[in-house]
Amino acid sequence: MSVNVNPAAEPLLKVSGVETYYGSIRALSGVDVHVNQGEIVSLIGANGAGKSTLMMTICGSPQARNGSVVFDGTDITKMPTHLIARRRIAQSPEGRRIFPRMTVYENLQMGAGLDNLKYFDEDVEKIFALFPRLKERQSQRGGTLSGGEQQMLSIGRALMARPKLLLLDEPSLGLAPLIVKQIFEAIRMLNEKEGLTVFLVEQNAFAALKLSHRAYVMVNGKVTMSGTGRELLANPEVRAAYLEGGRH
Amino acid sequence: MTNAQSPAKEAAPGVMAQAVKEGLFAGILAFGMFLLYVGIETYQNIDNALVWRTRWGLLAIFVAVSAIGRFLVVGFFKPRIDRRKLAKAKAGIPEVSDDKGFFHRNFLKIAMLALVLYPPVVVSLYGVQGSLKFVDNFGIQILIYVMLAWGLNVVVGLAGLLDLGYVAFYAVGAYSYALLSQTFGLSFWVLLPMAGILAAFWGIILGFPVLRLRGDYLAIVTLAFGEIIRLVLMNWTEVTGGTAGISGIAKASIFGIWSFDVGASNNFARSFGLPMSSAYYKIFLFYVILALCLITAYVTIKLRSMPIGRAWEALREDEIACRSLGIDTVKTKLTAFAIGAMFGGFAGSFFAARQGFVSPESFVFLESAVILAIVVLGGMGSLTGIAVAAIVMVGGTELLREMEFLKHVFGEDFTPELYRMLLFGLAMVAVMLFKPRGFVGSRQPTAFLKERKSVSGSFTKEGHG
Ligand SMILES: Nc1ncnc2c1ncn2[C@@H]1O[C@H](COP(=O)(O)OP(=O)(O)OP(=O)(O)O)[C@@H](O)[C@H]1O
Ligand SMILES: [Mg+2]
């Protein structure tokens, strides 16, 4: 699991000292995270730690009150969400947020809106190869898909944007172990074959750490630990908090 | 083996008994409900004293309709619908597409042909003067509402922005035409696009402050906006003529070649040596509004398969997801408001040219409500459904005016028009009971990989897994 990362190069995404508030409540207090080109990085932590908030802050809703988010050399901290998305940060958000009344096919079209469907035909075949279930269900309405299929659609839609960075918020939520394996396998393949950079939030810490090159642990809006996936898997503190009894 | 083959037949006696029972029950219920409201009527006699009389015949009709209606629904409609559902489930095919009949496949062509031929057919049946009622009351009147509803459909049906003040744009269009034609003497064909542009401009003005609102909040603000426009029209007397309105608005001409002004030398009827009649103008207007409707439909259909149309529909579903896909939601909403308003403006200037008179009376909230009701009844987003709803609702209320014979049933001083809203309400309740998603409830996808497939209604229920 070696990556061709040039340590001297600027990371693709650099989050520095970010503080995010919901009203007067501080959800993130000084978060430093970075993701290098070609890496899979995961973020684990308890419920309410602020993982989804960090994902959303990267996307600019809500915006960070302090600190900075730099993507691909550009400061995107105060940019509106749709302009951030146009810089090719694609997200499969918490709760999937697919368009329920639109068909699978149309949902994928929505993902390819940035290039005005220029690469659509080519890319949609790739998505269908990755998730054959979506191909079978292409004319079914998004809202009538099963949870796992919706998750595949959400990831597929994000991939249609040809992202430089893919943000995934709990892709394994509520899915059967077999489907989780399938989805994680897909992520690994995209990373190895296409060099896709992935930043991943997961409750399923064991699977996430095994998949990732590096990982962060978040507690109460702060990053408390970081290291390679293997290091954290071996770390007794991490094992006690996130792995023991929770191995899926 | 043998007893498994005809469950429907076996169930039939049970169903009939049930139907009779429910029918009787509905009759009794109707009797109880309507006894005081319908069965007994109070009125003032010559001495101005309040007296009452009974209307047993009318009450009997109400009771009979309820009882028989319920009987038919339980005994025949329900089993048939159930059977169809069962058959569909057995066949195991969610998509129904190939087995459409000739009529269904060529529906649009047939409808178009019927509309184009409507005026000549009516003229040949009832004569030029006699056609007036049919072309004007049933043709133009309905088509205006079709156009308004299709325009509002862009905002409500596609973009999902609940707009209760749509009539404001209708008013902007009407007054734009009235004022500009009176002040500058410009012709209908110049002012028609101008009215559309002005209305679109007002659509954007309304759009800006309400960008952050959704659902009920948006509805209330747009409602207020509609009322504000009306109040301005009422009170800005120097310009708009106040409640008296503006009269003597110039008629539209056939592209300036023929005019419909009685005094003009190039009067249409005179040019062709025809007897003078206002019917020609109405027939001409019929084709104008038909063309406007077709333009509206064409633009809507085209837009739906363009990025902006896709963005509208996605916006209706999930605004946050839209933004994270790079869609500028501000621009998307404003264009929806602007384009919807533009169609309202077109319809408005047409209205002014048809009536020759505008006043704030025509642009009350009730109009917005009727247009919205047509959109909802038609099945939000479906052009065909909306057209059907407009025909039923507007045509139905026009029909009421014609039903003189009702006077014999309900008494001499019965004015059917007054029951318009009651019927409107009843129709809405009925449609929503039987077709909760409107006449055409299933949204047609705009994109397909291989062939067109329409997903049947049973598969359009939303779910969040
Ligand atoms: N819109 C909001 N308004 C107010 N507080 C919020 C909002 N969204 C999240 N929070 C709060 O911010 C904190 C972090 O929430 P967040 O959703 O980021 O947690 P998480 O780490 O993703 O948890 P989970 O694993 O359960 O998804 C929580 O205390 C939550 O209650
Ligand atoms: Mg979360």
UniProtKB/TrEMBL annotation, chain A:
Domain ABC transporter: 13-245
A GO BP entry: L-amino acid transport
UniProt cross-references to CDD domains, sorted A to Z: ABC_TM1139_LivF_branched (cd03224)
Highest taxon of source: Bacteria
PROSITE patterns for this protein: ABC_TRANSPORTER_1, ABC_TRANSPORTER_2
InterPro entries assigned to the protein according to its UniProt record, in alphabetical order: AAA+_ATPase, ABC_branched_ATPase_LivF/BraG, ABC_transporter-like_ATP-bd, ABC_transporter-like_CS, BCAA_Transport_ATP-bd_LivF, P-loop_NTPase
GO terms for MF: ATP binding; ATP hydrolysis activity; branched-chain amino acid transmembrane transporter activity
Recorded coiled-coil stretches: none
Annotated keywords: Amino-acid transport, ATP-binding, Nucleotide-binding, Transport
A Pfam family hit: ABC_tran
Family membership: Belongs to the ABC transporter superfamily.
Name the record gives this protein: ABC transporter ATP-binding protein
Organism from which the protein derives: Rhizobium straminoryzae
Taxonomic path: Bacteria, Pseudomonadati, Pseudomonadota, Alphaproteobacteria, Hyphomicrobiales
From TrEMBL, chain B:
Main localization category: membrane
Domain of life: Bacteria
Record keywords, A-Z: Cell membrane, Membrane, Transmembrane, Transmembrane helix
A cellular component term, taken from the record's GO annotations: plasma membrane
Residues of the High-affinity branched-chain amino acid transport system permease LivHM N-terminal domain: 19-117
Localisation per UniProt entry: Cell membrane
NCBIfam families recorded: PRK11301.1
Name used for this protein in its record: High-affinity branched-chain amino acid ABC transporter permease LivM
Native source species: Rhizobium straminoryzae
Lineage: Bacteria, Pseudomonadati, Pseudomonadota, Alphaproteobacteria, Hyphomicrobiales
